[in-house]
Amino acid sequence: MKRRYALRFSPTLVEQPIVSKLVRIYDVDINILNADVASGRGGKLIVELSGSSEAIQESVSYLNEIGIGVSEMVKELIFQDDACIHCGACTAVCSPRALRLGKDATLLFDAALCVVCGLCVQACPLRLFSVSDERGA
Predict the structure, then answer these.
(1) How confident is the model over 110-120, as a mean pLDDT?
(2) C-alpha to C-alpha distance for 87 and 89, rounded to whole angstroms
(3) Which of 12, 18, 24, 119 is most buried (most C-beta within 10 Å)?
(4) Contact 49/26 with Cβ under 8 angstroms?
(5) Which region holds residue 27: left if phi is over 0, alpha if psi is between -120 and 50, else beta?
(6) Number of domains, the chain
(7) Is 22 helix (H, G, I), strand (E, B) or coil?
(8) Whether residue 55 sits in one domain with residue 35
(9) Residue 39 class from Cβ within 10 Å (0-12 exposed, 13-18 middle, 19+ buried)?
(10) Residue 79: what pLDDT?
(11) Is 59 inside any structural domain?
Protein backbone atom coordinates (compact mmCIF):
# COMPACT_ATOMS: atom_id res chain seq x y z
CA MET A 1 0.00 0.00 0.00
CA LYS A 2 1.17 3.54 -0.76
CA ARG A 3 -0.10 6.83 0.66
CA ARG A 4 1.09 10.39 0.13
CA TYR A 5 1.30 12.91 2.96
CA ALA A 6 2.30 16.50 3.54
CA LEU A 7 4.32 16.77 6.77
CA ARG A 8 4.79 20.13 8.51
CA PHE A 9 7.13 20.44 11.44
CA SER A 10 8.60 22.99 13.82
CA PRO A 11 12.25 24.10 14.02
CA THR A 12 12.83 21.87 17.06
CA LEU A 13 11.91 18.74 15.09
CA VAL A 14 14.24 19.44 12.13
CA GLU A 15 17.24 18.07 14.03
CA GLN A 16 15.59 14.71 14.86
CA PRO A 17 16.14 11.57 12.71
CA ILE A 18 12.44 11.11 12.03
CA VAL A 19 12.70 9.47 8.60
CA SER A 20 15.20 6.84 9.73
CA LYS A 21 13.04 6.04 12.77
CA LEU A 22 10.01 5.45 10.55
CA VAL A 23 12.02 3.07 8.39
CA ARG A 24 13.64 1.16 11.27
CA ILE A 25 10.82 0.96 13.81
CA TYR A 26 7.65 1.11 11.73
CA ASP A 27 8.91 -0.78 8.65
CA VAL A 28 7.76 1.72 6.04
CA ASP A 29 9.60 2.84 2.95
CA ILE A 30 9.72 6.58 2.47
CA ASN A 31 9.99 8.36 -0.84
CA ILE A 32 10.57 12.10 -0.34
CA LEU A 33 8.81 13.78 -3.24
CA ASN A 34 9.46 17.38 -2.24
CA ALA A 35 11.21 19.06 0.66
CA ASP A 36 11.56 22.53 2.11
CA VAL A 37 13.57 22.06 5.28
CA ALA A 38 16.07 24.30 7.03
CA SER A 39 17.66 24.16 10.44
CA GLY A 40 16.16 26.76 12.73
CA ARG A 41 12.98 27.38 10.74
CA GLY A 42 11.05 24.12 10.47
CA GLY A 43 9.83 22.74 7.23
CA LYS A 44 7.54 20.77 5.00
CA LEU A 45 7.98 17.39 3.35
CA ILE A 46 5.82 15.73 0.75
CA VAL A 47 6.33 12.00 1.18
CA GLU A 48 4.99 8.73 -0.09
CA LEU A 49 4.86 6.03 2.57
CA SER A 50 4.87 2.40 1.42
CA GLY A 51 4.13 -0.58 3.61
CA SER A 52 1.29 -2.45 5.22
CA SER A 53 -1.83 -0.53 6.15
CA GLU A 54 -1.05 -1.06 9.83
CA ALA A 55 2.55 0.15 9.49
CA ILE A 56 1.46 3.32 7.69
CA GLN A 57 -1.25 3.98 10.29
CA GLU A 58 1.25 3.49 13.15
CA SER A 59 3.74 5.78 11.41
CA VAL A 60 1.17 8.54 11.04
CA SER A 61 0.16 8.14 14.71
CA TYR A 62 3.82 8.46 15.76
CA LEU A 63 4.27 11.60 13.64
CA ASN A 64 1.17 13.18 15.19
CA GLU A 65 2.34 12.25 18.70
CA ILE A 66 5.67 14.05 18.31
CA GLY A 67 4.01 17.19 16.95
CA ILE A 68 4.29 16.87 13.19
CA GLY A 69 1.29 18.06 11.22
CA VAL A 70 0.25 15.24 8.90
CA SER A 71 -2.19 15.74 6.02
CA GLU A 72 -2.98 12.96 3.60
CA MET A 73 -2.76 14.17 0.03
CA VAL A 74 -6.00 13.04 -1.52
CA LYS A 75 -5.98 15.42 -4.45
CA GLU A 76 -4.82 14.45 -7.91
CA LEU A 77 -3.82 16.41 -10.97
CA ILE A 78 -6.16 16.09 -13.93
CA PHE A 79 -4.57 16.73 -17.33
CA GLN A 80 -6.54 17.03 -20.58
CA ASP A 81 -3.67 15.75 -22.70
CA ASP A 82 -5.73 15.39 -25.89
CA ALA A 83 -5.86 19.21 -26.28
CA CYS A 84 -2.19 19.80 -25.37
CA ILE A 85 -0.06 21.73 -27.89
CA HIS A 86 3.20 20.64 -26.18
CA CYS A 87 4.42 24.19 -25.57
CA GLY A 88 6.29 23.14 -22.42
CA ALA A 89 5.18 26.09 -20.27
CA CYS A 90 4.15 23.72 -17.49
CA THR A 91 7.56 22.03 -17.44
CA ALA A 92 9.21 25.27 -16.28
CA VAL A 93 7.31 25.18 -12.97
CA CYS A 94 7.38 21.42 -12.33
CA SER A 95 10.22 20.82 -9.85
CA PRO A 96 9.56 17.07 -9.38
CA ARG A 97 9.74 16.64 -13.20
CA ALA A 98 6.34 15.00 -13.41
CA LEU A 99 5.86 17.15 -16.50
CA ARG A 100 8.68 17.16 -19.03
CA LEU A 101 9.24 17.26 -22.75
CA GLY A 102 10.29 14.00 -24.38
CA LYS A 103 12.94 13.60 -27.06
CA ASP A 104 10.30 14.17 -29.74
CA ALA A 105 9.18 17.42 -27.99
CA THR A 106 5.88 15.96 -26.80
CA LEU A 107 4.77 16.58 -23.24
CA LEU A 108 5.13 13.61 -20.90
CA PHE A 109 3.20 13.44 -17.63
CA ASP A 110 4.28 10.98 -14.92
CA ALA A 111 1.50 11.00 -12.29
CA ALA A 112 3.68 9.00 -9.90
CA LEU A 113 6.09 11.95 -9.62
CA CYS A 114 3.38 14.60 -9.26
CA VAL A 115 3.12 16.22 -5.81
CA VAL A 116 -0.06 18.12 -6.77
CA CYS A 117 1.42 21.54 -6.06
CA GLY A 118 -0.88 23.09 -8.68
CA LEU A 119 1.72 25.36 -10.28
CA CYS A 120 1.05 23.88 -13.71
CA VAL A 121 -2.61 24.92 -13.45
CA GLN A 122 -1.58 28.58 -13.67
CA ALA A 123 1.33 27.97 -16.08
CA CYS A 124 -0.67 26.26 -18.83
CA PRO A 125 -1.87 28.86 -21.38
CA LEU A 126 -4.72 26.56 -22.43
CA ARG A 127 -5.80 25.74 -18.85
CA LEU A 128 -5.55 22.00 -19.45
CA PHE A 129 -4.73 21.16 -15.82
CA SER A 130 -6.99 21.07 -12.80
CA VAL A 131 -6.78 19.62 -9.30
CA SER A 132 -9.44 17.14 -8.16
CA ASP A 133 -11.06 17.42 -4.74
CA GLU A 134 -10.39 13.75 -3.91
CA ARG A 135 -8.79 10.70 -5.50
CA GLY A 136 -10.82 9.55 -8.43
CA ALA A 137 -13.06 12.62 -8.35
Answers:
(1) 85
(2) 6
(3) 18
(4) no
(5) left
(6) 2
(7) helix
(8) yes
(9) exposed
(10) 93
(11) yes
Contact 73, 50 (CB under 8 A): no
CATH of the domain at 96: 3.30.70.20
Same domain as 55, residue 6: yes
* CA distance to 9, 12, 25, 105, 137, per residue, from 19 (Å): 13, 15, 10, 38, 31
What value does the mean pLDDT take over residues 87-97?
Answer: 93
Strand bridging mode 2-9 / 69-72? antiparallel
| Backbone φ/ψ region at 104: left (φ over 0), alpha (ψ -120 to 50), beta | alpha
Alpha carbon dihedral 93, 94, 97, 103, in 10-degree steps, equals: -50
Helix (H, G, I), strand (E, B) or coil at 38: strand
